[in-house]
């Protein structure tokens, strides 16, 4: 026989749950408003009115922004930076982390010290900008990719994860004739798939949401990333960035519905992917924390 213990809710519990519900609703309402306005027929849209549900459902705003050259260019820029940047992040992070796990590597302690030093101290915005400028990377997508190939926190976590892998497997592979490169490719990487999956998500989300670096390194509006374009539409209230295409009838669409549609398109990929892959984000916090 099993007994189910039912907790008696106290006044504090009711108050606590009520406050959490209110906070949750206040967090959700802005998203509901953005979706509702973006799906509202531009002909019936009334400014400064709260829309809980779309009024006269319409995809006119989405059709408009997806037909403009500026929005499509920013989408292509963001996709390029995300795909190429994530791939290079994984290559540099896992190869360097693997090298740092080998005690026989010359200069290992010095390199590890440099990594930890950057974890504690940062050069700042101006030195980073001057470095990118001297390398000739200004107004280039590579300024966004090469300036963030890896970071100290990720390296330390991946290194700790690899330290926990059984050394006997590597020894057995070397007995079979594998060199260090083959051991890394055939033994270490397959065993590191949980870490690879986790940090692929971390890197991809980071690149997709890149804003500040794109704002200071990309001077050509045609190379803007999606987040910079959305910022221009929402905060600067400039329509010129997205009104590069479209008919005279399209240009009668209210700017507010266009802004909301742009925000939805910018955040939709993350909203779709994140709920299904949230467990990997949670697992990423624990990677490398337990050895044995």
From TrEMBL:
Family: Belongs to the binding-protein-dependent transport system permease family.
Listed Pfam families: BPD_transp_1
Signal peptide: none
Name the record gives this protein: Carbohydrate ABC transporter permease
Annotated compartments: Cell membrane
Protein's membrane topology: Multi-pass membrane protein
Matches recorded under SUPFAM superfamilies: MetI-like
């Amino acid at each position: 026989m099993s007994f189910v213990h039912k907790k008696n809710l106290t006044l504090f519990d009711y108050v606590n749950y009520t406050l959490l519900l209110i906070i949750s609703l206040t967090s959700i309402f802005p998203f509901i408003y953005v979706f509702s306005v973006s799906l509202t027929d531009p002909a019936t849209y009334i400014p400064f009115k709260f829309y809980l549900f779309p009024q006269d459902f319409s995809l006119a705003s989405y059709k408009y922004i997806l037909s403009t050259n500026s929005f499509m260019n920013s989408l292509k820029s963001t996709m390029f930076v995300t795909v190429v940047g994530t791939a290079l992040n994984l290559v540099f992070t896992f190869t360097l982390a693997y090298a740092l796990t080998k005690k026989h590597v010359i200069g290992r302690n010095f390199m590890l010290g440099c990594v930890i030093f950057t974890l504690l101290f940062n050069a700042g915005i101006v030195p980073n900008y001057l470095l990118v400028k001297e390398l000739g990377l200004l107004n280039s997508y590579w300024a966004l990719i090469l300036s963030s190939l890896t970071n100290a926190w990720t390296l330390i976590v991946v290194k700790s994860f690899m330290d926990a892998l059984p050394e006997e497997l590597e020894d057995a592979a070397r007995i079979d004739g594998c060199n260090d490169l083959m051991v890394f490719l055939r033994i270490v990487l397959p065993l590191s798939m949980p870490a690879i999956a986790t940090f692929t998500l971390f890197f991809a989300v980071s690149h997709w949401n890149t804003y500040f670096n794109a704002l200071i390194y990309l001077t050509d509006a045609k190379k803007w990333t999606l987040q910079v374009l959305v910022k221009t539409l929402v905060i600067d209230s400039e329509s010129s960035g997205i009104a590069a295409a479209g008919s005279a009838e399209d240009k009668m669409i209210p700017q507010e519905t266009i802004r909301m549609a742009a925000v939805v398109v910018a955040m939709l990929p993350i909203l779709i992917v994140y709920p299904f892959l949230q467990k990997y984000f949670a697992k990423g916090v624990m990677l490398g924390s337990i050895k044995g």
